[in-house]
């Protein structure tokens, strides 16, 4: 696998830095619109070039990463160890229009994007951020990008527009015990979408992330998820896009507690509920209640 073309030696599609790579986390992504296409990255970013994923009768099937080509940086350019790729998104949409060739990647505190095959990558720096650990795009508009480092969550409303700046939407996240962020996921649920993050505090969610920071607050997702660090989150919209339903599934990979999932009507349909505090008094006499809010 990872050859530069048909009949080429294994790993010949990788640059010298990546051919010498020892064991490490290696980002890869399946194309959102075309599952026969993939990207993989570490020092370089590589795109599958196979054309025989679904062969005709009598032909040999070639898996998506059997043949690849380097698309960033330019061939022959070395990448510093501090600039390795940490996350990838492949493919996207704007409304009903698919953009199969879109690639979004993160290096250090930068998010890079490519719109079309052959385009050079354009980078957008997130000022004040540490190393970006994960990225996700809005399924209805790939230009809206969310990114997390170990402490904060960021959004840019149009990564292709140089006039648009990154906005920090961390808000109360640390106040609810969520630190050491590792992963971010976007969940469509018309008319109010959600952003999920995973870290030391398990899984947390924010409603209407496109308007953040605003009136919505981060809250912990406690039902069915253990109190353990979460390293990866995947939301599977199995009943059709755009609405959380009983057939959907939320999967969380933890550190030391295995892989957990939420599914079924009770878990999924309550997942998108607005958090409401109900205070019930008695009719026997005067009731006294005290609410205190941490200023932090």
Provide a concise account of the structure shown:
By secondary structure, the chain is mainly beta.
Write the layout of secondary structure elements.
Layout: H1 16-19, E1 28-30, E2 38-41, E3 45-48, E4 68-72, E5 85-94, E6 97-107, E7 110-114, E8 122-125, E9 134-138, E10 141-148, E11 153-156, E12 167-168, E13 183-187, E14 194-199, E15 202-207, E16 219-221, E17 230-236, E18 249-254, E19 259-263, H2 265-271
Antiparallel strand pairs: 1-2, 2-3, 3-4, 5-6, 6-7, 7-8, 9-10, 10-11, 11-12, 13-14, 14-15, 15-16, 17-18, 18-19
Unreliable spans are none
Q: What is the radius of gyration?
A: 21 Å
* Fraction of residues in H or I helices: under 10%
Strand order of the largest sheet: 1-2-3-4
Strand content bin = 25-35%
Silhouette: elongated
What is the count of DSSP helices, taking H or I runs of 4+ residues?
A: 2
Order of helices and strands: HEEEEEEEEEEEEEEEEEEEH
Q: In this structure, how is the largest beta sheet organized?
A: 4 strands, antiparallel
Q: What separation lies between the terminal Cα atoms?
A: 51 Å
**Main structural class:** mainly beta
* Mean of all residue-level pLDDT scores: 89
- Give the oligomeric state: single chain
| Strands, total number | 19
Describe this structure as you would to a colleague.
A hairpin with a 6-residue loop joins strand 13 and strand 14. This protein has 296 residues and is mostly beta strands. The strands form five sheets. Strands 1-2-3-4 form a four-stranded antiparallel beta sheet, with no helix packed on it. A four-stranded antiparallel beta sheet has the order 5-6-7-8, with no helix packed on it. It contains two helices and 19 strands. The model has no long low-confidence stretch (mean pLDDT 89). The N and C termini lie far apart (51 Å). Helix content is 4%, strand content 35%.
């Amino acid at each position: 696998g990872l050859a530069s073309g048909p009949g080429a030696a294994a790993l010949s599609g990788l640059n010298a830095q990546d051919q010498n790579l020892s064991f490490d986390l290696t980002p890869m992504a399946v194309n959102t619109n075309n599952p026969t296409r993939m990207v993989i990255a570490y020092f370089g970013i590589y795109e599958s070039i196979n054309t025989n994923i679904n062969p005709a009768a009598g032909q040999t099937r070639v898996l998506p990463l059997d043949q690849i080509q380097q698309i960033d940086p330019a061939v022959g350019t070395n990448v510093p160890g501090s600039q390795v790729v940490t996350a990838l998104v492949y493919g996207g949409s704007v409304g009903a229009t698919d953009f199969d060739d879109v690639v979004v990647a993160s290096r250090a505190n930068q998010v890079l994007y490519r719109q079309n095959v052959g385009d050079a990558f354009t980078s957008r720096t997130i000022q004040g951020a540490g190393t970006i650990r994960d990225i996700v795009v809005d399924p209805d508009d790939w230009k809206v990008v969310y990114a997390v480092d170990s402490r904060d969550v960021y959004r840019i409303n149009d990564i292709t527009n140089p006039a648009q700046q990154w906005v920090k939407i961390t808000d109360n996240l640390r106040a609810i015990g969520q630190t050491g962020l590792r992963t971010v996921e976007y969940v469509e649920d018309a008319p109010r979408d959600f952003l999920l993050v995973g870290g030391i505090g398990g899984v947390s969610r924010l409603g209407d992330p496109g308007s953040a920071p605003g009136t919505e607050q981060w809250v912990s997702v406690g039902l069915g998820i253990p109190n353990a660090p979460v390293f990866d989150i995947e939301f599977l919209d199995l009943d059709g896009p755009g609405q959380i339903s009983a057939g959907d599934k939320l999967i969380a990979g933890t550190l030391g507690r295995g892989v957990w999932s939420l599914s079924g009507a009770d878990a999924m349909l309550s997942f998108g509920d607005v958090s409401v505090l109900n205070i019930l008094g008695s009719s026997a006499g005067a009731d006294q209640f005290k609410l205190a809010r941490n200023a932090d």
